[in-house]
Structures are given as C-alpha cells and as structure tokens.
Amino acid sequence: MMMRYRFSKTIAATLIAALLVSSCMAPPPRGSRTQRAPQISSDLAPGSSTTITPYDNLTANAGEDAAIANQKVVKVALLLPLTGRSAELGRALQDAATVSLFDKYARLSVSAQTVRVELLPKDTGDTPDQAARAMSEAVEAGAQFAIGPLFADATSAAAPIARAKNISVLSLSNTRTQASPGTYMFGFSPAEQTERVVSYAIASGKIKIAVLAPNSGLGDAVIATARETAQKQGVKLVAEARYMLQGAGMDTALNQLVPAGKKPAFDAILIPEGGAALDTIMRGLSARGVKPSTVKFLGTGLWDDADLLRRVNLDSAWFASSPPELTSQFEQRFLATYKYAPPRIASLSYDAVALAVTLATSGRSFDATTLAAPAGFAGPANGIFRLRANGITQRGLAVMEVQGGNRKVISPAPTGF
Questions:
Q1: Which of 64, 112, 303, 317 would be 60's cystine partner, CB 3.0–4.6 Å?
Q2: What is the mean pLDDT of residues 309-323?
C-alpha cells in the first residue's frame, strides 16, 4: 500500500518557537517580514507538482506580494523516496530540506530576497525506473539543480537525464563509483572517515593496526583505504579479517585475528560496523581478551550515533565524523520543529538545500566551475566541504573519543582546505 504523509498544520508555529530559542540562529534583519515555516498543506503524491517555497503562509501586504511575484525563481528538484520501503527516511530528508529553506530565508531582509528558491519534491520510490521518472518530471517542471536521489541505483538512473539537460546533481549517496563530472556524491564517505581516523591513530603511536570488516563494498573501501593510509605513514596493517553480511562467519574472522590461546598482535583495531553485528563483534572480541581498555578501537561515522554509544561499550574508542557541535545544533532544531529525532543522514539534506539557496541568492549558477570551487563551502550541519571536479565530496572531519557514552573532540576538524 502506498504510504502518504500529511504535514502538521501546527508546524509553522512550532518552527518559529524552535528558531527563537536556538542560540545559533540570528534574528531576522530589521524590516524583514515575519516568516512562517514553508509547509505542504496537502498530501504529497507521486508526481505531485506541489512545491516548497520560502514564502508559504506569510502575512504580507499587497506591495510585498507584488515584489515577490516579480522575483526571479530558481527551482531545485528534491529527489527522495517518498513512498515505498524508505518512505520514512525520505520524509525526514524532506523535513530537513524544508527547515533549511526557512532558516536561510529567515536571515535575509526583504530587500535581499531577490531570488525565490522553490523546492520540487519528486518521489523516487523503490526502483530505478521511478527515479528516472522523478528526474524527468523535475526537468519538465523547470528544475535547474537536483538534490538527491538517496541511493546509488536511483542516482545511476536519474543522472543521465539531468546530464542531458546540463543540470548538476548533488546525490545523497556515498557510492563513489557513481561520481562523475556534474554528478556529485554528497553522502558521508566511510573511506574518507577511515583515512582520517587511521592517520590520527598512527600519528598517536598506534602502529599495529588490524581491520575487521564486512565482506561488502563498504568493507572493500575501508580496507583499501586503511592499507593505503598506513602505507603512506610507513606502516603496514598487521591483520585483516572479513565476515559476511548479517554476521555469518564471524567466529572464523575473530579466530583469524586472535587465534586461540594467543594475545592480539595489534594495539588498535578498525571496525566499520554500526549495526546489530557490532554487538556480536564486541562480545566475541571481549571473550578473546580484546576490550576498549586494552586495545584502541577505531571506527567510522557509523559510530556517530547517540543510541549506539549508549548501547555498546566503546569507551575510549576513536572515530571520525563531522564536527559534533554543528550536527547537534541541527538535530536540536529539527527535534524542536518536528517532534522526532532526525536520522543522521537528514543533515545532508539540510546542508544541500543551504548550498542551493546560498548560490541562488548570491547570483551564482549551479555549473561545475561554481560547485567545484577550490575553497569549498561551509555546511551549517556538517562543517566544511568541497565538491571535486570528478564528483567526489571532500569533508573536513573531526576525530572524537567516546567518553562515558558521549563524544569528545580530540582532533578538531580543519577550518579550511
């Protein structure tokens, strides 16, 4: 059965309250109109022409309305799974996009609002065909830039349609094989996180590093990056072990790392796992004498999850992710607005819309020269990033230590590239 979502009629008042109490939110400039949250007041069905604009539900006089009507309009496609298996995630991404649009315009005076950015939500559903259709609908509606799709197969289907119309795509996927000029992978990269945390560990004296990873594309990328990073530092990984998805073959992998009756030959172990398999891994390693108190555990952004840190004992472990203070500000604003905690990936949608509005309202285009500017951009939820000409996103990452289930920055993210 198709899943459809109705947005709360009270979201406008809620969002205003959330923004007023947020310490990081500057008040609107004097002379600006009082804005309410952009919202969709009707069900969003596949193929819907409904748009999200920064002027929905505003109280304004006739003169201001006339000024808005004469403004330049920039349409940005929002390609998300709004129905099907990932509809709940798609809804969160759309919610993050909506509050981002409001946040950006709430900082502008009326006189500065010379461009109106309109988001065009299009449903990519569960299949590549649906994603291709969503991209085609966005093109027909006049989209000049596309945020999404979320998944690699959907991106593969949608990107050629955008490319044929010279429309840049900011995919929320992290699958680097889909990256190409004009199609940027904006998702969090486990390989980049691996490079950051392994480099830090080696610089901190942990030169006997082992890797335990799933037998998957993620595992392949992490192990290859760990090897390369260690080699650049004049170090070799002392052990590598793989297990099948869902944890099959875990005992064999653990025995390979720590043979019966022997002590571990490593002083640090990288584990790019954040799901239920992590519990099995931790129990298995503990039974073999490998604990956070005796060996340094290293992880990726998969550990940047408050629920996981409360559930699993990773005390003193290190992992790389976005600057936590920015992410926390976004999460608090989202929670106050929508009354549910956002999934970690929703912050990508927030930053992507912020980028689109920044470029549009400053008179810049969405071409490769602008998007791949060497200086990069500052994402309000995840810190600095830059889009490379080959479609890969580079981020400024921090290294954090787990302390009592909380995160503490031990190596700050860079402030520039």
A1: 64
A2: 94
